[in-house]
Amino acid sequence: xxxxxxxxxxxxxxxxxxxxxxxxxxxxxxxxxxxxxxxxxxxxxxxxxxxxxxxxxxxxxxxxxxxxxxxxxxxxxxxxxxxxxxxxxxxxxxxxxxxxxxxxxxxxxxxxxxxxxxxxxxxxxxxxxxxxxxxxxxxxxxxxxxxxxxxxxxxxxxxxxxxxxxxxxxxxxxxxxxxxxxxxxxxxxxxxxxxxxxxxxxxxxxxxxxxxxxxxxxxxxxxxxxxxxxxxxxxxxxxxxxxxxxxxxxxxxxxxxxxxxxxxxxxxxxxxxxxxxxxxxxxxxxxxxxxxxxx
Length: 295
Fold this sequence. Notes:
Elements: H1 2-39, H2 47-60, H3 65-77, H4 81-94, H5 99-111, H6 115-123, H7 130-140, E1 147-148, H8 156-163, H9 168-174, E2 184-187, E3 192-193, E4 196-197, H10 202-214, E5 220-225, H11 235-256, E6 264-270, H12 281-287, E7 289-294
Parallel strand pairs: 1-2, 5-6
Antiparallel strand pairs: 2-7, 3-4, 5-7
């Protein structure tokens, strides 16, 4: 019986060694394809060839982070951003310390105005990379990471990162950056027309509601701000009432999307907390804003 068990163990060990040898040989072939793809980088109209070579390489050796990263880079350069992000993430799943993937992913997110995701990616390499640290400082300047410009929509993925437990401040401290991030977004894309939410706001409200459904224990406060829209004697009172109505309108829109009213606070500030001064359209735009803070 002992002899039989020993033979079975030897057979199993041989099979393991054989499978490892086959896998090693396959990955060596995949690396050859990777180098062929590298050789094509400087040639025009080589995208299809590069993509084909790298996809073959991944099929042969799927757990090869550098090959996933190379394919992501090629896809990004051709504008196939969704697929590029997928392969950057696959590369990082296999090697969380792959600097190139973190940096390129951060740059891609930044170009797409997904600033929270970009910030998170930079934070993973800022201890050893000066460029990443400088990019973080740019994102932190005037809360650039949390400003949603008109015409843009910040996704649930970004909202979850900032409103959820993200450890950003701990990572900033580790990077030697003396700043604190607050779970608050400044929305310039939530628009009103005749005190009614404009239809362009609906997509953003959908993303916020989807986030709150996932963060089911969190609460939010909606802070609405106006500029000095009127020169009448009671302009402060009018602006205060207007901002309160705007905050309550957004709160009601979230309730209509399935969020409990008990989780939402609505506060109008009128023109009491301007962040810019003057009468230019740029100043009016900066002051007329919606801030949503999570607790």
